[in-house]
Write a structure and sequence with these properties.
487 residues, 2 domains, four-stranded antiparallel beta sheet, 2 helices
Length: 487
């Protein structure tokens, strides 16, 4: 039977129509999934950016003051916007061809549209306490182009509240704290340990029955305020029967603490670093730039680092008997470690060391390190003092890392050790959010003007640790009740 002429080509029409339908279903499944995933990611980015901006705003209130002690509103607003944009950028949303990010105070003149969904009862005078983050994200389509949709644009907003409260020391100024929320022996003393805390006390966040474990034939543990333990004020005492007094129950805090977060430094270098030698003064001078292979300074002559940024892709080792001066410098260590050894003398002022990818920092041997206005930010790697090194380090008295001596963020779980026969004089906060802190050996650590915060804290050997706590020498953080996401 021969087909009729008018029936020829019908299959092609049906296939073409079916193909459009198939492309439509593919667009719904594939392009729709991409758009949905991006919307969820963009909303999360907006939420975290709003919270980061609120956190920065609360911090900036107590820092940006004029000569009369009044807040400098323009500086506070600038810090708020910068923090929000930086956090959005860290999540992949910047002002480029694919997305735009806006950070506004809700009292901003000409804000169009105005902040929406503010809590009921908020008055216009309180609008300045609310920050809005708006992310516009554009996703190019693949299959939806067939049906005339080349891209899909999503608009996501988030609003956070930055309360009027001023920043204050973490845990109301407890000098020694272990943050781990559970388990035994998260705060302990083993050996002939002597701990003396002046003007403050000790806190243990663990709810384990033996969260605080005191062992050793002899030793002493004294505080001027109290031992605050989240396990209803219980502790375990082994050989020696050491007693803690007074011990009081404390409320556990969420871990990791929401406000115990500092932004990592941004250190960038341009060009290749170099060094020159002055025969008259027998001095090597280093110049800013990139040192991809690192450097090892094993010399007896003077070494000066010129002001600027230095990026080391491998070990930076300072050894020998040289006298090293590093003023107004920023060091970025992306590989290897930063060490002092031998009988090296390092003197510095206004120095920032960021370990990002490197294995850590060591002060060893008979080296001496005397630094003012210094911060060590270890995104990776461990930190250790050992040997007979003499360490005198003082945190900055202003700027972004005011009163921060050592900071190890939650992502870094490497250990912080103070061991050997170290004679240390440290001023400023030492914070290791997710790291174990160990003070051990025969150390005579009597010059601590610090708030020491770790995941766990272990006092061992014959350590003699005296903490002279002063609130004005410690980093401050916002009250978490002052910061919340409202939309």
């Amino acid at each position: 039977m021969k087909p009729r002429l008018q029936e020829r080509g019908q299959a092609l029409i049906l296939i073409a129509l079916a193909a459009v339908g198939l492309f439509g279903f593919s667009a719904l499944a594939i392009d729709g999934s991409r758009v949905f995933s991006d919307r969820r990611h963009a909303q999360n980015a907006a939420d975290t950016a709003a919270l980061a901006a609120a956190l920065a705003r609360v911090r900036a209130v107590g820092v940006n003051l004029d000569a009369n002690g009044n807040p400098i509103q323009s500086a506070i607003d600038a810090a708020t916007v910068t923090a929000g944009l930086d956090r959005a950028a860290s999540n992949g949303y910047t002002n480029d061809a694919d997305s735009t990010v806006e950070v506004h105070m809700c009292n901003e003149t000409g804000l169009n549209p105005p902040c929406e969904a503010l809590p009921s009862g908020v008055t216009p005078s309180e609008y300045k306490e609310y920050i809005q983050v708006k992310i516009v994200s554009t996703i190019p389509t693949t299959f939806a182009r067939v049906i005339g949709r080349a891209q899909v644009t999503s608009v996501l907003t988030a609003i956070a509240h930055a309360g009027p409260g001023l920043p204050k020391p973490f845990l109301d100024g407890v000098a020694l704290a272990a943050l781990k929320p559970d388990g035994d022996n998260t705060l302990g003393g083993n050996g002939v340990v002597h701990l003396d805390v002046n003007n403050s006390g000790v806190f243990n966040n663990s709810t384990g029955s033996c969260a605080t474990q005191i062992n050793g034939a002899s030793g002493s543990y004294t505080v001027d305020t109290s031992f605050q333990f989240a396990n209803n004020g219980q502790y375990c005492s082994g050989a020696g029967g050491n007693q803690l007094n007074p011990v009081v129950p404390a409320n556990p805090i969420p871990y990791p603490p929401a406000t115990l977060v500092l932004q990592a430094p941004t250190i960038t270098c341009s060009g290749t670093g170099s060094r020159t030698f002055d025969t008259a003064t027998q001095t090597y001078t280093y110049h800013p730039g990139n040192y991809p292979s690192g450097d090892s300074l094993t010399d007896s002559r003077n070494i000066n680092f010129s002001p600027g940024n230095y990026c080391f892709g491998a070990d930076l080792k300072l050894s020998g008997t040289s006298h090293i001066i590093a003023n107004d410098v920023n060091f970025l260590i992306t590989g290897g470690e930063f060490t002092t050894n031998g009988s090296t003398e390092l003197a510095c002022n206004n120095m920032l060391v960021h370990i990002k990818g490197g294995s850590g920092m060591r002060f060893n041997g008979n080296s001496t390190v005397y630094c003012n206005n210094v911060t060590f930010f270890a995104s990776t790697g461990s930190i250790e003092w050992s040997g007979n090194s003499g360490i005198r380090l003082f945190a900055p008295k202003g700027g972004e890392y005011e009163n921060v001596l050592i900071y190890m963020p939650f992502e870094n779980t490497s250990q912080l050790n103070i061991v050997g026969n170290s004679a240390n004089e440290l001023t400023g906060s030492i914070i290791a959010v997710h790291s174990d802190i160990k003070i051990s050996g025969n150390s005579g650590t009597t010059g601590l003007h610090s708030q020491i915060i770790g995941y766990t804290v272990d006092l061992a050997g014959s350590s003699n640790t005296v903490i002279n706590y002063s609130p004005g020498e410690q980093v401050v953080f916002p009250d978490p009740s002052d910061i919340q996401l409202t939309k």
